[in-house]
Amino acid sequence: MGKNNIRYVCQECGHNSNKWLGKCPACNEWNTFAEEFIDKEVVTKSIGISTNKKPVPLSEVVIDDEERYKTKIREFDNVLGGGIVKGSLVLVGGDPGIGKSTLLLQVADAVSLSHLKVLYVSGEESLKQTKLRADRLNIKSDKILLVSENNLDFIVKYVDEYKPDVLIVDSIQTVYNPNVSSSPGSVSQVREATATLMRISKVDSVATFIVGHVTKSGAIAGPKVLEHMVDTVLYFEGDKNHTFRILRGVKNRFGSTNEIGIFEMSLKGLQEVKNPSEIFLSNRPESAPGSVVVAGMEGTRPVLVEIQALVSNSSFGTPRRMSVGVDHNKVVMIMAILEKKLGIQIQGCDAYLNVVGGMQLSEPAIDLAVVVAVLSSFRDKVLEEGVVIFGEVGLTGEVRAVSHVEQRINEAIKLGFKKCIIPKGNIEHTVSGIEIIAVENVEEMLQYIF
């Protein structure tokens, strides 16, 4: 064993220091430095992931199609780009209780139905706890091997012994390398454990899933290098008070990062939502001021959701501006545009905006729907039934063109909408089957909606 050195490592970003610091100079977080004992021999030991040690010309590199395992969970396969790639390393992050372990256990069951062997390593739960979850989900496959272990050496031993096709480690923050003196969950342990699992994934062609905890700010706990090391990063989003969960790919070396999967939490686990637009609009109130349907895009999928606005006189000196599902700054900006371009005195009113169903909308195409929702509530006038709206609004009041127009309109036609208000710059991309109203600015739009 080499001589152990003491280092102070920031548990948020991985910055090293020879002495303890109250504030990290790299990420500006307070009280995040922890003492770690680092073995030089362990740190400097290289981990090879390739058997080819000679450089080859780019033109001579042979490209083979990736071998993928289909899970038959369509939403999950779409996010991964068509299925689980053999030899890939996938990081799944999300809030506590959001459904990460439930989803991966369902994925293990789906993969085992294709006669593939799955090794499920739980570092947080006992075998009985995992078995209880499996019974609740009606999972009884003999191809799923369970083990409760957090020692990295034993995990590597089990992989060498049982040769699984898919490895699931829940979670990476509980796994520790006995050769590293720091505690489990520290930056050094997470980095070393992930590097070892990456070697297993690449050398032995094992599709590996690792669960990552998240911090209170929503980022995956541990060093940022963790997300750089893996092939795919999936974030499981959603509010525990809502039944809908969104699986979003923020990094994918084998597919697009524009895809999302929508699930609904039920007593039998996570169920696929095949038509999210219909579900989001199922309980929409009729003849309600401030209610507007917007055609948004989640990746390459069009989703119709309801935006509700409530504008009322303020009883305070400073009016309140609150939004759920839409950026607060966007709401403030749009209300300023209404005051400047339409002459509407709205600065003395409280304004509340909500996206129904717990969805998060961030694209510029929702601007026009926010404008209509605020005006509808402010004037206490109901928008005509069967109208869907989308478009970006500039600071000068112009309505700018957006992308994926045909997909948005086709989704509206599928759900029975009769009229669509779009930017004038998108008029050449429209389809038949619905009345199209093209507007150039917010003043022109005001003539059509009320």
Task: Provide a concise account of the structure shown.
The chain is α/β, with parallel strands linked by helices and 450 residues long. The protein has twelve helices and 23 strands.
Shape: globular
Number of helices: 12
Report low-confidence residues grouped into runs of 5 or more. Answer: 42-46
Structural class: alpha/beta
Helix content: 25-40%
Oligomer: single chain
CATH homologous superfamily of the largest domain, by name?
P-loop containing nucleotide triphosphate hydrolases
CATH architecture group name of the largest domain: 3-Layer(aba) Sandwich
Strand order of the largest sheet: 8-7-9-10-6-11-12-13-14
How far apart, in Å, are the first and last alpha carbons? 78 Å
Q: Quote the average pLDDT.
A: 87
Number of domains: 3
Determine Rg (CA atoms, Å).
26 Å
CATH-defined topology of the largest domain: Rossmann fold
Question: What CATH first level of the largest domain would be assigned?
Answer: Alpha Beta
Largest beta-sheet characterization = 9 strands, mixed
Strand count: 23
Roughly what fraction of the amino acids lie in strands? 25-35%
